[in-house]
Amino acid sequence: MIELSGKPGRSPTALRWSLPVRAIVIVFALYQIAYIAGYLVRPHPPEQPLFGDFLAFWSFARFSVQVPAGNIYDPEALQAFQLALPVRFHGFYPYPYPPIFLLFLRPLAGLGYIPAYLTWMGASLGAYAVAVAGPDWRSPRVWLSLVAPTTLMAIISGQNGLLCAALLIGGFRLMRRWPLWAGLVLGCLVFKPQFFVLVPLVLIAGRRWRALAGVVAGVLGLTLLSSAVFGPMLWLNWLRAIPVLLQLAADNREHLLPIMPTVTATLMQTGVAIPVVQIVQSAVTLGVGAVLIWLFHRSRHWAEPAAMDIAALQVGVFLVSPYAFLYDMPMVTDAAITSGARGTAPGPWRVVNAGLPLVAFVLPVLMLGAAAHGWPIGAAVLCGLFGVIARAAWRD
Questions:
Q1: What mean pLDDT comes out for the span 24-42?
Q2: Residue 102 pLDDT more than 80?
Q3: d(Cα 36, Cα 51) in Å, to the nearest integer?
Q4: How far from the centroid of its chain's Cα atoms is residue 191's Cα?
Q5: Quick one: how far is CA 21 from the chain centroid?
Q6: Considering only CA atoms, which of 146, 141, 217 is closest in space to residue 186?
Q7: Cβ-based burial of 366 (10 A; exposed 0-12, middle 13-18, buried ≥19)
Q8: Whether the Cβ atoms of residue 2 and residue 339 lie closer than 8 Å to each other
Q9: For position 337, what pLDDT does the model report?
């Protein structure tokens, strides 16, 4: 990637408004404005409603207050409710999340569709900007993150990728001064279990016991609160629904795989047999987990994990999860910016170390273009980026 910071090993918050950085921000800002404007003015058929994924979130919020929440895992009851909404809804969006996520959505139930979308996206985007900026609002990394293609996809879909990134990045930013609060923030990420699973492991590896206590308190608190608000049977219904939800995902695999940058999705697009895919995914999960555990164990005596260690985690959660999408990638964008900001030392790998963060930054655009030609590239780029970041973290 273009050397954003100028010196190897320099703090990733020390980005400067150099000419290349200004050019990247301006180009992607114009692209984002043009894309959103075109998206808003073009006709939207019933099967592709405006901000379609958020329409599902809004339906979940309304369902939780108008119908017994325990029925939200009943596909027939949920689809009947969605079809009866005043906003056009001619499809079906299942609710695959744990009951905890309804706590995040419930405040939207009393709002109309567009006001609810603006509230959701404004809060998510604001939280993401705060988490990325940290103490340095003047850094261009904030603008690089906001104009990135993955941010655009999160805005267009109305998904929760920005919220996930805000919780993961923000939690580790709080680690130095308020480890208990950091753990509480990280614990909120449990609503998306595939992104949460590595968090307790790296905290244990780094012996960050106060943060781990915050994680446990946060998870238990959200579990008890969701049981009190929606009833404890909702958790049992979720566990019972998991096989049905997995089958629904398998039935829609043809449409989902091109927008999934995971190892499992990439291998399946190339025609690899399912048993082999499972073996490779397990091997990658164990390898990535081992690297992350070692990195965080090594930094156990520091006040907070190093920036490159956290960046490795942000990419690693995608490599260990078989189920993640392009709109979930704001945390990967931040990791790519962190890697690019570090700069590269002279050597034979200079081009790779500099180029992969830039490729990862624009990966959503590249994946959509490559999918039209049947070229699954998502996992390859993420594996390369993880290697570059892990190597830099080791050298640091």
A1: 91
A2: yes
A3: 11
A4: 12
A5: 24
A6: 217
A7: middle
A8: no
A9: 92
Instruction: Give the pLDDT confidence of 159-203 residue by residue, as tens digits.
Output: 999 999 999 999 999 998 899 999 999 999 999 999 999 999 999
- Two tokens at 204? 């244990």
- Domain segments of the chain as ranges: 19-27+36-395
Residue whose tokens read 């019972």: 240
pLDDT digits 0-9 by tens, 274-294: 999 999 999 999 999 999 999
Question: Per-residue pLDDT averaged across 31-45, rounded?
Answer: 88
- Name the token pair of 186: 């990280």
Positive/negative CA dihedral, 60, 65, 67, 73: positive
> Which pair of structure tokens corresponds to residue 163?
């919220």
Residue type, 117: Y
Whether 5 has a pLDDT exceeding 70, the answer reads no
Query: Please, what is the angle between helix 363-371 and helix 378-395, to 10°?
Result: 150
Taking the CA of residue 364 as centre, how many other CA atoms within 13 Å lie in the half-sphere pointing to its CB?
20
Distances (CA, A) of 322 to 184, 252, 278: 26, 15, 9
Buried b or exposed e, range 159-192, using 16+ CB within 10 angstroms:
bbbbbbbbbbbbbbbbbeeebebbbbbbbbbbbb
